[in-house]
Amino acid sequence: MTGDPGVAVTAAVAALAGQRDPLLIGVRHHSPTLARVLPRLLEAAAPRVLAVELPAEAAGWVRWIGHPDTVPPVAFALADPGTDALSFYPLAAFSPEYVAVRWAHEHGVPVECIDLPAAVSRDVTPSSVASAPRPGVADALADLLGAQASVDSWDLLVESRGAGADPEAVRVAALAAGWALRADHRPDEDAENELREARMRTCLRAFDPGVVAVVGAFHAPALTTGMLADPAVEAADELLLQRFPADRNPVASLVPYGSAELDTRSGYPAGIADPAWQAAVLAHGDSPTELRAAATAALTDIGIEVRRRGHPCGTGEIAEAVRVAADLATLRGLPAPGRRELLEAMTGVYAQGDVFGRGRVVAGAAQRVLVGSERGQLAPGTPRSGLADDLDRRLAALRLPAAATELRLEPLRGNLDADREIFLRQLLAAGIAYGKPTAGTGAGGARTVGSRWSVAVTSATHASTEAAALFGVTVPQVAAARLRHTMRRDGDRPETAALVLRRALHCALDDLAAELITAVRRRFPHEAGLAELTETIALCDETLTGQFAGALDDGIAALRESLTGLRAELVPPVIRELDGLAGATDTGDAALLADTYRTLYRTSGDGPLRLRHTIIGFADGAASPLIQGAASALLAVGEDGRDLRPQVESLISGATDTERRDRLTGYVRGMLTAVPHLLSTAPEVFGAFHDVIAGLPDAGFVARLPTLRAAFDGLAPEVRERLLTETERATGVSSRRSGIDPELVAGWADDDQRAFDRLRALGLADAAFTPGVRWQLVLGRRRGGPNTAVQLGRSLDRLYGAPSTRIEAGLGIGGDEAPYPTVREWSADLAELFGADVRDDVLGAAAARGDAAAALALSPGTVRPSVELLTTMLSLSGGLPESALAGLRPLVRRCVDDLTKALATRLQPALRGLRTARPTRRNTRILDARRTIAANLSRVYRDAEGRNRVIAADTVFSERALRQPDWHLIIVVDVSGSMEPSTVFAALTAAILAGVPSLSVTFLAFSTEVVDLSEHVDDPLALLMEIRVGGGTSIQAGLAAATDRVRVPKRTLLVLISDFEEGGSTAPMIAAITHLAGSGVSMLGCAALDDTGVARYHVGTATAAAAAGMPVSAVSPLRLAEWVAETITGPRS
């Protein structure tokens, strides 16, 4: 562009405004100034066709939008029944689209909706990567006008200056604002708008002359006559629209809307700030005098509202606010104050510049006045569904309010509240937006008798009702149909069946509940996991004992016999699945164990006896430390009253290395997860911990402090405070701030420090940490004490977080120490305070929590490699930049190399028979001593000293075995989130087995998809770096991929490493195992591949796999290598 840019811009806007076919009226979705002048612009243009930027689905509704009896605001709504997604196109009296449609209805002009249909997916990917934001015309315009954003630019250019302006001048200003926004537009960065504009141009080309297009001002420059007539643009538009066909079937409706929803602060889309003020601009915008009077009235009403709220605001303040608004408008060259001037006058005069205390009061008052409370009405005869009529009838019959209300129901104490509860649950299941349950728990998490709901009839209620009408004509019918649709959509999985059964019972849908009970009785004993089984038994108990409103319904009461039978049938599978928790390391499994125990311990029959036997086995050590701790806690608070003191003393006293520290952490976490209030409700358990912690020497306590802090990290703040209170009673040490003069306290501290220094010089200083201080450090509540204690607590706060919750702040226990500026300083302090051994453990724990800097602080030369550390490093590697990843690779390589060497040494004896070299008489310089001696036994003689000697006349040498793979080993590894340690061992073991000459190894990793990583099998680091742990589980897909790679079944070994938590039906998986077993493939299922010998797995599925021909157990890498060797060479004698 050459010459004066201002002249060029003026010419471009003039050309846009001068276009007559189609005549372009650029609008903003809500614009009172344009809405005011639009009828005169349309009358002057006298269009034959009015094209409006509304989705194509609105074509059948424009007659109702423009109906004289329709009272705005209303909204054209579109709902997708498949996803429950709602979209709204609000139409207010000051919306230009509404005014245009209303004018066309009055003058008999046809209306065409030219925006992209909602049936077309908007998931459009830009054709190139968006560039960084750059200053442009819109930014320059905003700077010139003193605006904060493009919305402000529109207000200043069109709305504020439009009072009393000529209609054509307003149209030109609007087109100019749209052109400024468009000037910086890059089509390749806004593919969705390109698609929409292609649709608009295609529609406009099809119309005869005499079209007026009311479109967004931003789109107007893309709808010029030149672009419409350009064959190249037309061909591109056609190709683009063909790429995105309609693939959805949205349900359209016209719904009433309200001013509160129209306001942008409501969270509803396509709104505008302060609708009541926008309506005032529409009503009085023709006259600047009237608009100034409207501004005065608004400021007066806001002042009255502020005073009504208890704050001083009289005639003087109101007059001053009016003067400030008027003066600001004059200084800015505006004919009358606009919204911007009103806000600045309120902030300066009413709020006195305070945006918090008084400012919030003024904001609330302004919102009441400037937003309004109007609600639209539909014209009589506007189409609505039978479901909407049923909804209205039921709301009236149950006396449920339309206005926003908080309901407190007691469904177990009254028929009306019970019916309301059931109906509200049915609305939730039906996807009709009316009520939302709010928290209803009592003290200590106990369930309350009543329930709380937030209810309101909104535009979302009307729109979601029309969408739900596809499923039926009554609310119960739709709820049942929607729940059946959920079952079909989610694949009829056990967790889905359990969820839908719960909802059906709560909704009193007896027919659906009966169907689900039958399906659950058929499938759950064999396919459901422990969580679903326990949840279903608990649901049966709740229903049989009438603990919710739906259970009191006559139809659900008739299912009591079926529910009783279902409960009895699910108890044995629950006991069976408990064994699968033995190797669990997730606290969620400890909580599940506790839930199962509490659900079943009152069961009749032999269930409680078998349950108790399993729990005792866990507590006695036949489980991971986490599950052992959970089981011990359950026995301690149960009828057994197990004494935990010996175990606690042993664990704390023995926590001197990483393995034992991890065991202590897991044990205590399991205890506190299973019984969160154990230490505050069981004095004998707390006493065991207290005695051991208090009895440790200072050095021993400091060495164990990080482990104890980690173990108690999961305690709730309230429990921590109760424990400290108990400690204070026993020790006299308080963790709370006192009202004593700080200078006096500081003097005492100096005296204490000097005394301690003297004791230390005499070798008598092993009393620095009193029991009270120790518990403060363990619980993360250090608020004083010796300097060393403060340093210890601060170092651990870096990992576990300093106390900062609302409860802690209310108790006055917040800390004021500065955080560590760098990980290097933190690492140095950890080493100084706890030693290098514990320092590495703490940094490793920080890395496991996602702290990449902590991982990089670990030294490859000194760190102790472990599977846990390696899994942490691998999980971090995917999210690090290349610069940080370069620093992590040496650490990962060190871990992999050391672990592989150690594992190879352990596996060497098991693989000896597979590596045997071939004997030969040819001199290979590798003497086979055993065979040579055997061949020369006839040449043995005694020498002069009486020793036996052999004359090696017949020598036998060894020839290195050539790689001639006779056997094919297929390792199929589940890489879902719960299998991280087994994945590492699988990669290391596969690399070792790949070195066996007689084996060829295939490595398949699967979650819901399968990846063949066999090319990396000889490099465990490369293999592990390729694996991405996470996602769902499809064992059937992994087995299918393995089946495709079987060449000689009788010389093929298949190892499946999985927790057997199949994501879908187990039937295809069992069929695949049966087929492989029948073909002669030797198979082994590993529920875990690690050194613990225990696993967390689905026992029912594993049992079915074993019955189909795949033995399943938790094995170590050594046992796996022995199985491979025994399968190939036969069992060893």
UniProtKB/TrEMBL annotation:
Coiled-coil region: none
Database matches in InterPro entries: DUF5682, LolB, Uncharacterised_CoxE, vWFA_dom_sf
SUPFAM superfamilies reported for this sequence: vWA-like
Pfam families membership: DUF5682, VWA_CoxE
Domain of life assignment: Bacteria
PANTHER family xref list: OUTER MEMBRANE LOLAB LIPOPROTEIN INSERTION APPARATUS, VWA DOMAIN-CONTAINING PROTEIN
This protein's name: VWFA domain-containing protein
